[in-house]
Amino acid sequence: MRIAFISDIHGNFTALQAVLADIKSQKVDRLICLGDVATLGPQPREVLAALQALDCTFIKGNHDSAVLNPEEAAHYEITSHLIPDLIWCREQLTESHLELIQSFLSKYELTFPNGVSVLSFHGSPLSSTDLLQSTTPKEVMEKYFEGQTATVFIGGHSHIQMYRRMGDKLILNSGSVGNAFEYAFTPGLIPSLLPWAEYAILSQSGSSLDVDLRRVYYDTDALIQEVQKSGLPGSAWWLRQFQK
Ligand SMILES: [Fe+2]
Q1: Mind listing the pLDDT tens digit for each residue in 168-214?
Q2: Residue (of 148, 154, 168, 162) closest to 213 by Cα position
Q3: Dihedrals phi, psi of 24, to nearest 5 degrees
């Protein structure tokens, strides 16, 4: 059984198309999206239309909650300069797009045929805004996973792929489809984006479980053109993320 995990698409349809093509070539049995689908990028409508056509289980990210309730954006830890982009994103979406986002789950657990259980979430098992990184202290990490019975955990939110063992647990991050960061987000600094899209495949065969943290190169020049013609309020900020 093979399961693909995509996360943090952030309105980047150019990257999503590349990832969906790669997933098709990988012959997976299931698809799980870990949230943050529409906001920030130039193509929220195209992303939602593509997601509606998929057979996919969706988890709700902090940006998904914020686009449903823009007046509560601060509660979902969306920084104030991104609010105009959030409002613009909501205006691009139809009622049926918003209904799909409303239906997203807070977390989702499944068990592979060999008994390995996997808990999916956006930030942590406790909250879509918890930020788990390779550098997060062990004591802090343990609080997020206390009492959890799954063996493998997978989330998004940090926009950085991660493979971290913690006791008998494995903590994974599938990275970001549309907004892969070169380094960890630092408040006040413009993130630096990498020229590829990230996602993960977990596959079980017999008693083994393979983790494949994948990188898919896509046409960033095409994305930049989409940003330039989109009318996105923060387009200049977006474009700066590609400058070295
Ligand atoms: Fe995100």
Answers
A1: 999 999 999 999 999 888 777 778 999 999 999 999 989 999 999 99
A2: 162
A3: -60, -40
Does residue 244 register a pLDDT over 60? no
Amino acid at 56: C
Distance 122 CA to ligand 1 centre (A): 9
Distance CA 124, CA 34 (A): 11
From CA 118, how far away is CA 111, in angstroms rounded?
Answer: 6
Spatial CB neighbours of 56, under 8 Å, sequence gap ≥ 6: 31, 32, 33
Mean of all residue pLDDT scores within the chain = 95
Taking the C-alpha atoms of residue 202 and residue 119, their distance in angstroms, rounded to an integer, is 12
Structural domains present in the chain: 2-240 (3.60.21.10)
208 alpha carbon – ligand 1 mean position (Å)? 30
Residue 238: which pLDDT band, with cuts at 50, 70 and 90?
Answer: confident
Centroid of ligand 1 to alpha carbon of 195 (angstroms): 17
**pLDDT tens-digit map of 131-147:** 999 999 999 999 999 99
SS3 assignment, position 210: strand
Q: Are strands 152-155 and 117-120 parallel, antiparallel or unpaired?
A: parallel
Per-residue pLDDT at 128: 98
Contact assessment for residue 191 and residue 185, using Cβ atoms and an 8 Å cutoff: yes
